[in-house]
Amino acid sequence: MRTKNKFRFNSLITLVFISTFCCSCKKDDASQPVTIATDYSKAAHWLSIPAPIMPVDVFYLYPTCWQKVDSTDPNICNIDNPSMLAGALPAFKRQATAFETFANVYAPYYRQADAGYTLKLQEDLREQVIGGIPTSDAIAAFSYYILHYNQGRPYILAGHSQGSNVLIHMLSGYLKENPEVYQRMIAAYVIGYPVTSSYLANNPHLKFAHGPDDTGVIISFNTQAPSVIPPNNPVVSNIIGLVMNPITWTRTETEATTAEGLGSLMPDLVTLNFVPVPQYADARVDIDKGVLICSSADSNDLYKYTKPFGKGVYHSFDYPFYYFNIRANAQNRVDKFMHK
Question: Which H or E element spans position 224?
Fold first, then answer.
């Protein structure tokens, strides 16, 4: 069964576009010591607990799905924050469902930091905040999943934005300390947050993908229009990350045209539901800037969705632009892993 991920979300989509990437919650409790992680034996603390009918799993962490209403609110939200609970499902639908055709997708709720607060911090302070309460919850959820749900199956890690930032901490922490669990990881789709060369150098047990077939690897990209200067992209700021092209699944700067894409999910203008759209997005890696360039999208048309981050910053479309390519590639990596 899936817990709480079959609800309607037409009325939520506008909230989620804003809160997915411009979010926040409590005061400076990020500076307080973390003592108790969320109890994941409670089904109410899971967005998705599927019936395990597939041979592989996905453990998914949604992006920021809430924002502070008042400046005096805490910078970390509660696990039952209504805005976060409402926003998590639409994010799941336009991202995690890419994996549902071949995997059991598990998704916990987790306490999140306010993005409006964290994105203004220096990188080291931001990592300290995300590495605190949000990561402690994610590790508690993943540990519970491994012990009670996984049953030894291979798995994929998938996240976006803050969810991917948390995965970065899990990969360098929990999975380093539990190599027998790491050996079953097919791939980690750490999308919407930069993965740097220095991070990999400090964590030699990890490796970034080089092509479409390798396993046990990290995949990452951050999408923007060619006109955006990276310092004006609040997601990456001045962080130069490694980039994978989500159409060709290579790291070269050769452009992949829309004709090479397998299709996107884009919001219907009337219902705001995400619906399949054929061959909408092209893709080109910019190595020097550490970003993925999409030149086929209309930045003016999409501005109503990207406004919290700026015109041409396609953060909210990292998954939707390349939804069917992500599905096909993840299935391919599963096949390669299973045949080993």
Answer: strand 223-224
Q: Please name the residues in contact with 64: beta carbons below 8 A apart, sequence gap of 6 or more.
A: 19, 20, 21, 22, 23, 24, 112, 113, 114, 115, 161, 162
Placement of tokens 């995965």 in the chain? 167
DSSP string across 37-71:
---TTSGGGEEE-----SSSEEEEE-------SST
Alpha helices in the chain (DSSP H): 13-21, 82-94, 115-118, 123-130, 133-145, 162-172, 174-177, 179-182, 197-202, 303-306, 318-321, 323-339
- Give the number of other CB atoms < 10 A from CB of residue 82: 10
| CA 152 to centroid of chain Cα atoms | 24
- The dihedral built from the CA positions of residue 90, 184, 51 and 326, taken in this order, carries a sign that is positive
Q: In one letter, which amino acid is 62? A: Y
In this prediction, residue 115 has a pLDDT band, given cuts at 50, 70 and 90, of confident
Residue 124: count of CB within 10 angstroms of its CB = 7
Interatomic CA distance for residues 313 and 88, integer angstroms:
21
- The whole-angstrom separation of Cα 217 and Cα 185 is 8
Report residue 123's pLDDT band, with 50, 70 and 90 as the boundaries: confident
Residue type, 313: V
In tens, the pLDDT along 72-104 reads: 889 999 999 999 999 999 999 999 999 999 999
SS3 185: strand
The chain-wide mean pLDDT, for the chain, equals 90
Residue closest to 226 by CA, chosen among 295, 301, 132, 329: 295
Lookup result for tokens 């799941």? 92
| Coil, helix or strand at residue 133 | helix
CA terminus-to-terminus distance, the chain? 30
Amino acid, res. 148: H
DSSP state of 112: -
- Of the two residues 177 and 9, the one the predictor is more confident about is 177
Tokens 């502070």 found at: 68
- Both tokens of residue 256? 């992949």
